[in-house]
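Let's practice the habit of predicting before peeking. Look at the sequence and jot down your guess about where helices and strands might fall. Then scroll down.
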Amino acid sequence: VSHPIVIVVGGTDEGFIDKSFRCYPGKNKTGDYHGEMNSALFIRWLTSQLLPALVEPSVLVLDNAPYHSQLTEETRCPTTATRKAEIVKWLECRSLPFPPHATSPELLLICKENRPEPRYTVDEIIRSWGHEVTRLPPAHPELNAIEQVWGCMKQHVRSTLQRFTRADLQARLQEAKLIATKEVWAGAVRRSRSFEEDYWSPDSIHKNVEPVIITVDIDDKDELFIHSGIE
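Done guessing? Here is the structure:
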């Protein structure tokens, strides 16, 4: 397969969310799919497919992929790539004092010391639709039930793919989608919740876990496709 296949979908312990499944061929021939998704594409899927399909208030749990984590304009802080004039403007707009002859590194230090609390564009959109957002800690895929669902699907694709053509891959993906039944999803959710309970129990600070929806994107160079999902 010369191009990756990109899959974006949402799911709960009831299975895939109706009308949230999106599958399209990537453009990169190198096998590195990391540039195949960006904030604009994710937000387009979020607002045109996922959010309209949610029939009741939900909690979307996001990982910290770059396309989930675009800062709002108000909370974006200057970086070393920012021109000095723009850094000065940022400070002046916030009435932050600075020496008149300060260098760019000195100005950036003042910016860093006064960095606003981050807010994310995706979070703002989700809340505007009447839902809530929480974010997963880094490097904890075991808390994502959808990880286990993807594993089940990928195992089927790897074991049945024969011709290594795009058409064959898409056919195997459709089969894999059917294999990820409600029972598979429910079992995956139970397992992820058991990990979460194990993490909370030593500190005795958490008693009940509310149902959540999880959106994930995996960084796995061995995958046949990339995805973003929800649990």
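How did you do? Residues 182-200 form the longest helix (19 residues).
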